[in-house]
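User: Could you check the structure of this?
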Amino acid sequence: MQQKELTEKVVEHIKREDNFAKWLGVEVLESTPGYAKIKMKIRKDMINSFGSCHGGVTFAFAQTALAFASNNYGNIEVALETSMAFTSPLFEGDEIIAETNEESRKNKVAVYTISVYKTDGTKAGVFRGSVYRTNRKYFPEIERE
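Assistant: Sure, the predicted structure tokens are below.
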């Protein structure tokens, strides 16, 4: 199986099986091994008591971008450590984008930086995460072909 086909298959699998990403309303704009660009819209049920988007929603959105980027190689990869700095508040109706940058990829660990920004270019946050690279394949029966 070609890498592009495998990546597309992994993206479709995550979109179908990740119920939280579905709840967020994530749309995948671009996806290649080690890279993902996703989009979503802030809804009323994501707003906290201060009238802005709950930080956990923004964090989860960035972590979803991490999942798409790291898993697109075809192996199951899981978060080891994550953190996020929130640089600008988000409000109901804001459309946001998360874009990944693979900083390092070694035998068992990969490190990513994810920028979250409004569609007008305003940066809303910076997420850093490392993932553990398992040996488990998403589709072992297909990848043997």
